[in-house]
Structure formats: structure tokens, C-alpha cells
């Protein structure tokens, strides 16, 4: 928001985050959707950001009057501030910060310029280790669910190998048809039970 005022009383600047009406990434990969066709015919219409506030999440991010900046409770503890006249500064984005950020400048006296404007923010990948399974280890090559799946499959494979070797080395008769290098002299497969 760029504004000018000759008032001695500083205006109140408020930044709000409104979630997207629809996923802008999904809209980009599906250019033949009805909303995209409408927006191509009307360049002033953006279906990603133009919908009623009741259809999306709206949060106040921060407000500023003079040099005092106040963060809303949802954003407490984050490195967010309003710098210069009315620029929102987010030092580190978080998962879920994607949305349309609206700036509103209110003054009781003269105010020239644009008192309301917006900018868009898209967070593409989560980089926070706060919810990771292995917080001290940075595994950027795989997601947490893939790591869990690989560990479970490895455990099942280990049980299968132990079961095969146990069956091959047991002193009693069993029906194993897979040879195992654990103890070939004590095999109890059908060929050894003659």
C-alpha cells in the first residue's frame, strides 16, 4: 500500500490473509476449466482470489499505528513485521501461509493514494523440521511417509528372511522349498527328510 498523508496522527495499517478461492497451481495446470475460460474472456476477473469471504479463511496478520506493530494471535512468535510505510515483511514463510494478503490503510483525516491493495503468496514446499519424524536429520530426498513405508517394508523383509532361515535350520520336519545359506548341513526340507 502506497499512501501519503499530511495528518499528524499516523494512519492504521492492517494486513489480512485470505485463503485462495481455489488452488492457483491446480488452475495453472488445468487451463481448460470453466473459471479459466471466463477469466480469459474478462481480464479483470481472477477466480483464484475473487470470492466471498464466507467461502474462505480470513485472518488478520498484523496491524501498525505509528511505530507500534501488533501481530494477531495466530501469527504470534513469527518473524513478521510491517516495515517502511506499510510493507508486510515475512522473514520465513510457513506451510499454510499461501494466500492473498490484503493491506488496508485507514486515516481519520486526509489520505491520498491507494488505501487498499493486495499481493499473493504461494508456499510450494514445507521446509520446517518442527513436525518431522527425524528432527535432527534433513532428508530432503524423501517425504516422511516414504521413509515410514521403507522402514516397514525393511522390517517385513527381515522377518521373512528370519522365518526362512529358521525353517531351514530347525531340527523338526517342515515344508520349506527355499534354500537358505544359514545352515545347509541341518536342512529339514523334504529332500532331507527321506
Automatic annotation (TrEMBL):
Bilayer topology annotation: Single-pass type I membrane protein
Q: Which UniProt keywords apply?
A: Cell junction, Disulfide bond, Immunoglobulin domain, Membrane, Tight junction, Transmembrane, Transmembrane helix
Subcellular localization, per the record? Cell junction, Tight junction; Endomembrane system
Show the InterPro entries listed in the entry: Ig-like_dom_sf, Ig-like_domain-LISCH7, Ig-like_fold, LISCH7
Source organism of this protein record: Tetraodon nigroviridis (Spotted green pufferfish)
The text of the family note is: Belongs to the immunoglobulin superfamily. LISCH7 family.
- What are the TM regions of this chain, as residue ranges? 145-164
Instruction: List GO terms (cellular component aspect).
Output: bicellular tight junction; endomembrane system; plasma membrane; tricellular tight junction
**Where does it primarily localize?**
other
Protein name, per record: (spotted green pufferfish) hypothetical protein
Q: What is an annotated GO biological process for this record, any one?
A: establishment of blood-brain barrier
Report domain LISCH7 positions. Answer: 144-191
Q: Which Pfam families match?
A: LSR (PF05624)
Amino acid at each position: 500500500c502506497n499512501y501519503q498523508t499530511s495528518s499528524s496522527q499516523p494512519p492504521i495499517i492492517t494486513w489480512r490473509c485470505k485463503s485462495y478461492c481455489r488452488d492457483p497451481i491446480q488452475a495453472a495446470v488445468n487451463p481448460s476449466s470453466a473459471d479459466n475460460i471466463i477469466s480469459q474472456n474478462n481480464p479483470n476477473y481472477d477466480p483464484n482470489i475473487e470470492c466471498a469471504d464466507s467461502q474462505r479463511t480470513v485472518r488478520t496478520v498484523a496491524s501498525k499505528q505509528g511505530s507500534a506493530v501488533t501481530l494477531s494471535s495466530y501469527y504470534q512468535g513469527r518473524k513478521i513485521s510491517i516495515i517502511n510505510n506499510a510493507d508486510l515483511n515475512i522473514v520465513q514463510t510457513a506451510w499454510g501461509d499461501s494466500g492473498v494478503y490484503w493491506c488496508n490503510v485507514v486515516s481519520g483525516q486526509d489520505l491520498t493514494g491507494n488505501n487498499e491493495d493486495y499481493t499473493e503468496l504461494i508456499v510450494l514446499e514445507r521446509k520446517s523440521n518442527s513436525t518431522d519424524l527425524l528432527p535432527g536429520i534433513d532428508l530432503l530426498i524423501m517425504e516422511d511417509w516414504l521413509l515410514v513405508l521403507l522402514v516397514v517394508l525393511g522390517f517385513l523383509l527381515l522377518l521373512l528372511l528370519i522365518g526362512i532361515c529358521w525353517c531351514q535350520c530347525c531340527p523338526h520336519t517342515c515344508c520349506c522349498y527355499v534354500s537358505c545359506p544359514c545352515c545347509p548341513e541341518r536342512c529339514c526340507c523334504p529332500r532331507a527328510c527321506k
